Each structure stands twice: as structure tokens, then as C-alpha cells.
Amino acid sequence: MTSTxxxxxxxxxxGTTDMAITRVGFGAWAVGGGDWAYAWGPQDDDExxxxxxxxxxxxxxxxxxxxxYGLGHSEEVVAAxxxxxxxADRPYVFTKCGLVxxxxxxxxxxxxxxxxxxxxxxxxxxxxxxxxxxxDLYQMHWPAEDGADLADYWQTLLDLKxxxxxRAVGLSNHHANQLEAAEALGHVDTLQPPFSxxxxxTAELLPWTRAHDTGVIVYxxxxxxxxxxxxxRSRVAGLPADDWRGTSADFTTNLDANLAVADALRKVAExxxxxxxxxxxxWTLAFGGVTGAIVGARSxxxxxxxxxxxxxxxxQDDLDTVADAIALLGAGEGPVRP
Length: 338
Prior knowledge:
- The chain is of the alpha/beta class.
- It contains 11 helices and 12 strands.
- The chain has a single domain, classed as TIM Barrel.
- The chain has helices at 45-57, 73-82, 116-130, 150-162, 176-185, 206-211, 233-237, 255-272, 276-285, 300-306, 316-329; strands at residues 12-13, 20-21, 24-27, 62-64, 92-97, 99-100, 111-112, 135-140, 166-172, 190-192, 215-218, 292-296.
- An 8-stranded parallel beta barrel has the order 3-4-5-8-9-10-11-12, surrounded by 5 helices. Strands 1-2 form a two-stranded antiparallel ribbon.
- Helix 4 packs across helix 5 (176-185).
- The longest helix has 18 residues, at 255-272.
- The radius of gyration is 19 Å and the shape is globular.
């Protein structure tokens, strides 16, 4: 495979890690496939592999997955996509731990487990599925709910880093007090929070991450597709039964307010001559302290649609357009502009 690095995908420093990452990365949640508690519906593996390879060939240099996505299948798909790519051209692979599923019933929501022995079993399973000797970034997916203290699981991740099983360690979906407690034990290399023009509360964590030089990769910048311009009430009504979005308040109760924000992003996209998905991602990248955005794709065409986000700089008029739309119907929560 010949890798063509686009000039607008130049990597930037990723906190204090020894990695420099492109400002957009491939998110592998949806490519885990259907038939589990938080699935996006069916997904063709060949199309998923083609999407990942197109992202890498375009210059995207990191992939974010998790053991829970497809109950292990997303990691397997990522491994298949990277098989045969020369070491020099391989992207960084980030994955997560702490969500444990029921092997006998795929429909049951996973448990949030912080037990050190469980995490050690998980890392070995992820290494095997990903077919790598070391994971570039290992993240605790959610705060534990099994009685394990943050100190228990964070120390385990720090130990895995010291042992060389993982290159860097981070937290996902953790708040400021938890970040502070973890930092007291060992540096929080990275944070992965949700962030979009609808769910904006993450902006309040950015002063902490900047002060501690913690890299930040945000997830769901397109609000799971809602901000891409491809959704209306009829599409929501027609979502497959195994697509979690069909029961989410963002896609049902709060749909009108959220679609107003989507329409504002359409206007921003038109001004810049980019796709609406790229505009939605660029909005998150406008916030100082956000290193990169995790952007999902289920086909090469979808990847092509958001690559421009990495080099799009929004103007004050753009930010005003989105802020006004948020205020119109009170969409989401958090600061309305950088």
C-alpha cells in the first residue's frame, strides 16, 4: 500500500506522548457490526475494511476502537484492515477496556468493571484480536461500577504502560475530579470525552487538560450522524430495531432542537465548500485544547466526506450561526462557542 499524506492532515503533538496524530482519526464503533446492546445496525465487514484502508491511505494516522464494539469484532475488523500494511505506514491503534459483556446474551448492556485482574484479561484479549505486540493507547472506557476504586484501575493501566504492553494510557468519560485523582497517581496521557455542537459540556474540562498537557480526542463530533444532514423524522422512524439511536432522546424527544443545529452546520459547510459532516467536526476542533476528533465511517465515501475537517478554520460568523441555532430551541448543554 502506498500512503499519500495530504498536506492538510499534518500530525500535531498528542499531549506528552511520543505520538503526533492527525486532527481527525477513524472511529471504529459502527464497524463492530450489529446484534449487540449499543450497535448501529448491520455492517458489511468488507466495506468496513475498505473504509479503514481509505482513511489510512488518505493520511489519517490513528484508529480508535474498543473491545466492547461488536463484542470484540471491531478490533478484529481493524486487524484485518491493517493486515499487510508495512510497519512504516501503519496507523496508531487506540482501544479501551472496562466494559465486560455477557458471553451468553449479546443484547445485555455491558458491565462497567474496574477489577485489575479483569483489565489484565482484557488487555491480553485485545492484543490478540488486534494482532499487535503493544497497544498505542489504552483507555478506561467508563468509571467502574463494580466497587473498584479509580486508583485500582488507573494504577493497573499505569502498570501496563510500565510493562510495555501499552504505549500510553488515558481515560474516557471521566470528569474533572476523577482526572485530578488519577493524575496524582500517574500522568493522564489522554482524555476521550463526548463533544459536539449538541453535547458541549466537555469544553469545561479543557482548561484542566491544557494545564496538564493531556491530549484530548473527542468522540461523537457528528452526534452519531445526527449533525450530518442525513437525518429527519422519517429516517429516525425507520432505523433498524438493533440501532441504539432509535431509542435515544437526542433522536426522539430533542430531535427538533438538534436538527436546528444541524441546519446551522449546513450553512457553515456551504460557506466553506465542504460537507456538513466536515463542518460538524471542524466545530469541535475550533476549541483550544482539542487535539483531534474521532470520526466514524462505514464506507470509503463517508471517510471522504469528513477529511476536510482537519484543515477547515471556522470564522466568527460561522460560530455565531451555530450559537444562534443552539439558542433558538435550547439544544443540548454547555458553552455555545469556543
